[in-house]
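Quick one: examine the sequence and fold tokens given here and explain what the tokens say about the fold. Here goes:
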Amino acid sequence: MGKKGKELGGPNVDKTIELLNKAFCDEWAAFYYYGLAAKLAEGLNSPAVAEELESTAKEELEHANELADRIIELGGQPVREFSDLSKLANYPRVDLPSDFGDLEGILKAVIEAERGAIDVYNDILKELSSVTKDPITFHVIRHIMGEEVEHEDTFESILGS
């Protein structure tokens, strides 16, 4: 990114990059666990649940890519070591049930993960609003957060709650 574009990151750009990297790690964890649950889900309604999990997993990977792009634009680097993803994530795992026939348990775990993501992105937005004032990163995070809210709503609807 050009000099002026980097300046928009503000004086706390290192803090912004750190927050984005932690969220980047979260998105990779969600991608992995949602994809795993989609492959292993069992039972009468599992095809519909698996389809939604697979679709959402792909969106989580898109979020990771959006975050990586912004990190790079700000002059940073996304987390490079795969082993560091779980170490640096805010939410390094989705607590899926051991029985993949427990679709209700899977849905509840995913809903909880989405709520965690919403909290993470809300905290980043607060940081960006009050301290950093980086309008581009704010827009990226607001976009991703909106999709996380949609995911939570979708999985709650499937669960019937």
